[in-house]
Amino acid sequence: MGIGNWELDAFMHQAKFIPARREVTVVAVYKCVECGNIVESRCKPGKCKSCGAVKDKLVKQDQSKK
In the sheet that 58-61 helps form, which strands lie side by side, from edge to edge? Predict the structure, then answer.
């Protein structure tokens, strides 16, 4: 058993109306107050990867201050 012509036609018809998917990744920049390490992440990390400081020590930076 294979795919029937009507199934293929239905699939192709629906495929025309499916919008193209875009990968949108919003990255925030966090700077560690303890060591100055800069971390880029979608959400606030649990700790600094460099010195291990808790997430309260990571301060969100503006994108222009990279």
Answer: 38-41, 28-32, 58-61
What are the residues whose beta carbons fall under 8 Å from the beta carbon of 46, sequence distance 6 or more? 55
Q: What is the pLDDT of residues 38-62, one digit of tens each?
A: 988 888 999 999 999 999 999 999 8
Tokens of 37: 């390490």
pTM of the entire predicted model:
0.57
pLDDT at residue 66, as a whole number? 45
Domain assignment of residue 17, yes or no: no
39: domain CATH number? 2.20.28.10
Residue 47 lies in a domain: yes
